[in-house]
Amino acid sequence: MVEYILIFISAALINNFVLSYFLGICPFFGVSKKTSSAVSMGLAVTFVMTITAIVTNLLNTYFLKPFDLTYLTYVAFILVIASLVQVVEMFVKKTSKPLYNILGIYLPLITTNCAIFGLALFGQLRDYGLMQNIFFALGAGFGFTLALVIMSGIREELEFADVPKYFQGVPIAFLTAGSLALAFMGFAGLIS
Amino acid sequence: MQKRKFTLAIAPHINTQEDVSKTMLLVLYALLPALGWGFYVFGLPAFWLTLTCVLGAVSAEMLMQYMRKRDIWVIKDLSAVLTGILLAMCLSPNLPLWTGFLGSWFAIIIGKALFGGLGYNIFNPALLGRAFLAISFPLLMTNWTVPIINTDLSAVTTATPLALSKFEHIFTSLQTLFFGMHGGCLGETSALFLLLGGLFLVYKKVIDFRVPLSIFTAVALMTVLLNFFTQGQAGTIFYNFFAGGLMIGAFFMATDLVTSPVTPFGNIVFGIGIGIIVMVIRVLGGLPEGVMFAILFMNGLVPLINRHTWPRRLGQGVVNK
């Protein structure tokens, strides 16, 4: 159990996907203008990440590795993640309208996002088991949501700031993200 | 700041002598004892470093104001001077002067001016400058010297008390820490003078007492808790109060009027968050000291804290039946 918690914390804080690996930058800047949409996006990413972690792990253990097909990793992972998430989106749309309203519109946006794909590849690279991979995904998703929500809070505040003309919008958001990444560096080496 | 025309409303008006430069001046007064002690203990290099940082901060502020075609004499409000002094006080005293200059430029330009100037910055400029230097020049930034009053030679290197206790399990005596006869940052060594300055600011109501109080409470509780789980590796409560940058952080950095929450309850949440992160980094993390990172992290959370601790307006949420 301790091992799973460590994987979770490590993925959420120390090796935060956005602020230390710089993965998933596009949704990070695209959907961080409002806190409510940031929360939805974070949940959607966590959801997709968890599905990805389960599926790619099974695929890797029971198909790619036994048949010595690891050179097909990229193709196989992209295909499976993208198609599965589309199916899940249709399923959610059909069965649960409220859940679809929260997650639905963000699901197609992030199926082939680098954060999701990075998670699948990290899981394979580190030889995680199924449970380890799931906790890794939950941690990464939590870390992503945390970064996104903090960022959206700051950006809502910056709407009223007297930012120089050429730094309004995305430039100042990049500077903010850099400053946040500096703050997150304090967690380096937290688990050793 | 932009010159806008204000239309006055009808009476009554409340008049006050308070303004930005008065507040900054009070903070400067409060910092003087600790700064003076830093000069006395670390000698001339400390003085030159402080001067460089102040000049750097003021010149950067003037440059940015000039480029934005604003009044360059806003530096009279002393906020840039204060940023420079605060930055210098959390640097190693014999740091090369150009590094200090670079840090203060980063602090003012990236940390403050680009966010819109005084009042709009999200992160504490001085700490952002220091974090930038700590990440960019890790070797220079961890090159500490023995206080010159303890040795005949200048520039004998040493480790800070927190690094000693963390990596070699040597605890510096409380007395040394309290009066500040040990290696460390220029202005963080003397807990006594920082405490006096901080209490002066609390008395003058420049800073909110809730922030330092909740930081110290959280640090004390976390010390007890972590000692329980790590078999006493965290040190005593007072050791954690006096060592490292907690004193200057709690009284002068975290309480920055711009980057701390505006609501009373928000300030408590803010302080508790800082205290917890400081102790987690000090005891469980890879770095000996985490005050800077803790404050920067909580600075980032301030907009959210403000929004969720907003007091209820009178009559808000009341349903008439």
Question: Would you summarize the structure shown here?
Answer:
Chain A is mainly α and 192 residues long.
Number of E strands of chain B: 2
- Specify the overall morphology of chain B: globular
Number of helices of chain B: 14
Low-confidence stretches of chain A: none
Examine the secondary-structure arrangement and name the CATH architecture of chain B.
Answer: Orthogonal Bundle
Indicate the structural class of chain B.
mainly alpha
| Main sheet attributes: strand count, strand direction, barrel closure of chain A | none
Q: Structural class from helices and strands of chain A?
A: mainly alpha
The unreliable regions of chain B are none
- What share of residues of chain A is helical? over 70%
Count of individual helical segments of chain A: 9
Number of domains of chain A: 1
Tell me what portion of residues of chain B adopts beta-strand conformation. Answer: under 5%
Query: Which fold name fills CATH's third level, the topology of chain B?
Result: Ammonium transporter fold
List the helices and strands and how they pair.
The complex is a heterodimer of chains A (192) and B (321).
Chain A: H1 2-14, H2 25-30, H3 35-64, H4 73-95, H5 97-103, H6 107-110, H7 114-125, H8 130-158, H9 170-184
Chain B: H1 20-42, H2 44-67, H3 79-89, H4 97-109, H5 125-136, H6 138-141, E1 144-145, E2 157-158, H7 161-168, H8 174-179, H9 191-203, H10 210-230, H11 237-242, H12 246-253, H13 264-284, H14 291-308
Helix pairs in contact in B: 1-2, 1-3, 1-9, 2-3, 2-4, 3-4, 3-5, 4-5, 5-14, 9-12, 10-13, 13-14
